[in-house]
């Protein structure tokens, strides 16, 4: 009898607990449709508690951030018209227009068809001279074109599906990351970037006959008799060459060289590149310190750059160049390393300052629901470039949702009026 009673009572208790859990769950999800993301627990335990909060907002992201924004249709048409030009173009005219462009709004013309024409000119203008570009740590070449324009050429080091593991700044530069970054900037209306496109140069026709003596000295024959380049740069090594493919071609990112005077600054959120933690990694109030020495405009600009870098996972922006009081997005080669990794601390300027320019937010809201990756694919298609694997494209849309979640976290903490800034 007493055993039966105990059994009945435990059943009752069990039912009570189950009901509790059920009501707790429904009350918490009323009005919010939850999508559960796999939150990597072990890693999060070691990460700042802010990450846990951001992931909570990610799980309850309003549905508008997961579907396409109908307002983007018109904007996408405009973007397409920049790159989809069927006009027969004269390379000289394009270079003339590009070089004489003066504006406080952009580095280059963004009128109908012109960005696509600039890329076409970068891909097709004859090469007059090829030299080493010794500035920086990574192997790159300087191409002088027939009309005297200069290009930086960052050669392909990896296949598109190679995954770079290890630290966020591991490995060589990724040539496709440079070009991907350019289209990403165009979609997000970030106009302070150098046009960049995939170009193939022929070792026998484009390089050897046009190579400077200095470049020739950094070329060696490999086991198969191909002429390879090891270049001149801080990390360049004789046994880490770039070799032509079976057609004698070297693929790379051809980036328009900007012959301008930049001011160079060290990024306040730079990494230590050692196991030592930087101040921003230890102090959640770090933004206050930065605000003491930088203008609001510059901080908002650094936050735009952090968002941009987070989307491609470039964790190597140790310094930044400024032209006309705007950060120029130079050196975007350390993105697209591992499509499975979203290193949230690249967003530190955003979650530590909890402010964002209203126009940036507007541009981000436009490209929800896969529009961001779709549009990069469409625009780069006009130059015949395949820039990344499907995993990388998906990763960019996934990271965009994490940016939305971070802004939601900021709004809940400080309120809309404090988060969005108009300049
Ligand atoms: N398109 C460009 N036009 C003009 N100058 C450029 C351009 N891209 C880069 N630079 C300049 O050349 C320097 C080296 O280029 P970049 O940063 O791309 O090379 P890197 O080898 O990746 O260098 P690091 O290892 O220091 O990051 C930059 O700091 C910048 O000042
Ligand atoms: Mn670099």
UniProtKB/TrEMBL annotation:
Q: Name one GO cellular component term.
A: Golgi apparatus
Domain FAM20 C-terminal per the UniProt entry, residue ranges: 222-419
Q: Which UniProt keywords apply?
A: ATP-binding, Disulfide bond, Glycoprotein, Golgi apparatus, Manganese, Membrane, Metal-binding, Nucleotide-binding, Transmembrane, Transmembrane helix
Q: Where does ATP bind?
A: 138, 154, 255-258, 321, 331
* Residues annotated for Mn(2+) binding in this entry: 173, 331
Named from the GO MF annotations, one term is:
phosphotransferase activity, alcohol group as acceptor
Cofactor entry: Mn(2+)
**Superkingdom to which the source organism belongs:** Eukaryota
Spans through the membrane: 6-25
Q: Which InterPro entries match?
A: FAM20 (IPR024869), FAM20_C (IPR009581)
Localisation: Golgi apparatus
Instruction: Give yes or no: UniProt keyword Coiled coil.
Output: no
Residues in the active site? Answer: 316
Subcellular location, principal: Golgi
So what family is this one in? Belongs to the FAM20 family.
Q: What is this protein called?
A: FAM20 C-terminal domain-containing protein
Q: Which organism is it from?
A: Parnassius mnemosyne
């Amino acid at each position: 009898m007493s055993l039966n009673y105990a059994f009945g009572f435990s059943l009752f208790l069990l039912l009570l607990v189950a009901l509790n859990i059920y009501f707790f769950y429904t009350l918490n999800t009323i009005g919010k449709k939850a999508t559960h993301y796999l939150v990597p627990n072990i890693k999060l335990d070691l990460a700042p508690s802010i990450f846990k909060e951001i992931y909570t907002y990610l799980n309850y992201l309003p549905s508008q951030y997961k579907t396409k924004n109908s307002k983007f249709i018109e904007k996408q048409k405009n973007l397409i018209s920049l790159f989809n030009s069927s006009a027969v173009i004269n390379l000289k005219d394009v270079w003339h227009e590009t070089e004489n462009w003066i504006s406080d709004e952009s580095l280059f013309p963004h009128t109908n068809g012109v960005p696509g024409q600039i890329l076409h000119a970068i891909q097709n203008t004859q090469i007059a001279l090829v030299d080493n570009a010794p500035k920086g740590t990574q192997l790159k070449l300087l191409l002088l074109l027939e009309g005297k324009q200069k290009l930086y050429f960052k050669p392909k080091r990896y296949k598109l599906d190679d995954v770079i593991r290890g630290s966020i700044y591991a490995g060589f530069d990724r040539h496709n990351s440079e070009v991907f970054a350019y289209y990403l900037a165009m979609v997000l209306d970030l106009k302070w970037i150098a046009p960049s496109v995939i170009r193939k140069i022929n070792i026998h026709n484009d390089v050897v006959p046009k190579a400077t003596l200095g470049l020739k000295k950094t070329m060696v024959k490999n086991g198969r008799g191909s002429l390879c380049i090891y270049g001149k740069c801080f990390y360049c090594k004789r046994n880490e060459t770039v070799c032509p493919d079976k057609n004698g071609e070297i693929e790379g990112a051809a980036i328009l060289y900007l012959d301008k005077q930049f001011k160079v600054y060290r990024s306040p959120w730079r990494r230590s590149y050692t196991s030592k933690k930087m101040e921003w990694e230890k102090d959640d109030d770090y933004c206050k310190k930065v605000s003491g020495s930088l203008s609001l405009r510059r901080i908002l600009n650094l936050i735009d750059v952090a968002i941009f870098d987070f989307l491609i996972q470039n964790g190597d922006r140790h310094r930044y160049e400024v032209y006309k009081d705007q950060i120029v997005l130079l050196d975007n080669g350390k993105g697209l390393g591992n499509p499975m990794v979203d290193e949230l601390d690249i967003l530190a300027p955003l979650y530590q300052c909890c402010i964002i320019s209203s126009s940036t937010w507007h541009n981000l809201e436009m490209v929800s629901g896969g529009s961001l990756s779709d549009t990069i694919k469409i625009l780069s298609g006009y130059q015949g470039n395949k820039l990344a694997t499907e995993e990388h494209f998906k990763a960019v849309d996934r990271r965009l949702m994490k940016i939305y979640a971070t802004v939601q976290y900021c709004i809940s903490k400080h309120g809309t009026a404090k988060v969005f800034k108009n300049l």
